[in-house]
Write a structure and sequence with these properties.
elongated; alpha/beta; 10 helices
Amino acid sequence: MILAVASGKGGTGKTSVVAALAAVWPAAAVLADVDVEAPNLHLFVHPVPESSEEVGVETPVVRAERCTACGACADLCQFGAIALLGGRAQVFSEMCHSCGGCFRVCPADALARGSRVVGEITTGRAGRHTVVTGRLRLGEAMAPPLMREVLARAIALAADRDLLVDAPPGVSCPAMTAVEQADAILLVTEPTPFGLHDFQLAHQAFAPLGKPMAVVINRDGLGDAPVGAYCRTHHLPVLARIPYSSELAGIYARGGSLAEDPVVRAAMEALIGALRA
């Protein structure tokens, strides 16, 4: 099973939920942190790194001796990654989305295939589990290619094991990339007006994928936003509630697993039972 743990809002607690699930998961699993712009699952599961590898994307390199400055590549690129300057094509690789269109329209074979490093993938071990973490290069805006590579590595490593995916917050391209291969989506929210608003956005964004979805309410007891009513109206099962308490905040602050708390541990075990039912 590939389970994506997502939220429409940052700071809701999805990473804490992934770490708590990992602590009580009944078998060895693979954990993938695809929140590549701000990975933090490692802060709670404490993997021992075993390998690290840079990940690049394909970008064009101009062969000056062949370029006729026809402008076909610049006209095609919708991202402004190629422009005609000084009578020849110039590539701004940071803006390239690696669609490959420029190679196809160049009539003079004046573009060679280069690459640009967008980030790195670290693989490690945390107890029984394998942990795969993607980290985007500082200043890099292209998260989805690295996320897809992290997911591909994690799926290959999982084989017949379960895969828990820590997705990025929000509902834009990175969030959709994180959940598109999942068998089920677990949405983490909190009972506040902001939490409800972004939870609704996440539900509406992921619903067209047609995947089973369920909910964990974190910081239960905080605020009075009608998250429960929304779930009932849209037939979203609430599989766990994590109480709002200073003790849990303390566990979080020292990088522990919320499953250290017996109430949360029981809630996570019940959640896993419901997922497997």
